[in-house]
Amino acid sequence: MSITNNLTVGTKGVRTTWGYHVKFLVNSACHIWGNQVWNTGDLSKNNWWVALITFGEGWHNNHHAFEYSARHGLEWWQIDICWYMMVFLESIGLATNVKLPTEGNKLKRSFASTNKFK
């Protein structure tokens, strides 16, 4: 086997392993550590350090509150690389009908809301 084939197999294995570890990190760490901004009825939390290494997926409470949203980092300071890519794809016409939560949706999910029909 040539060195090129070894590098290709090794690179794919590392990439796949990294992908699974990051996915499981989001689904475990973001249900234990972080801040819960939205009333979702579960244990999901926003975790900034997980968001940094997962390109925005660490804003997990945002995701649970607004599952349809293309943007997980809802605040200006919440870094969301996936959202930045989505904006680029939309600007060149490769993404359409990109959904975001409205202010009304945010109000319904906030802890201050008295609306019991979420």
Automatic annotation (TrEMBL):
<dbReference type="GO" id="GO:0016717">
    <property type="term" value="F:oxidoreductase activity, acting on paired donors, with oxidation of a pair of donors resulting in the reduction of molecular oxygen to two molecules of water"/>
</dbReference>
<keyword id="KW-0443">Lipid metabolism</keyword>
<comment type="pathway">
    <text>Lipid metabolism.</text>
</comment>
<protein>
    <submittedName>
        <fullName>Fatty acid desaturase, type 1, core</fullName>
    </submittedName>
</protein>
<dbReference type="GO" id="GO:0042761">
    <property type="term" value="P:very long-chain fatty acid biosynthetic process"/>
</dbReference>
<keyword id="KW-0812">Transmembrane</keyword>
<dbReference type="InterPro" id="IPR015876">
    <property type="entry name" value="Acyl-CoA_DS"/>
</dbReference>
<keyword id="KW-0444">Lipid biosynthesis</keyword>
<dbReference type="GO" id="GO:0005789">
    <property type="term" value="C:endoplasmic reticulum membrane"/>
</dbReference>
<comment type="similarity">
    <text>Belongs to the fatty acid desaturase type 1 family.</text>
</comment>
<keyword id="KW-0560">Oxidoreductase</keyword>
<keyword id="KW-0276">Fatty acid metabolism</keyword>
<keyword id="KW-0472">Membrane</keyword>
<keyword id="KW-1133">Transmembrane helix</keyword>
<keyword id="KW-0275">Fatty acid biosynthesis</keyword>
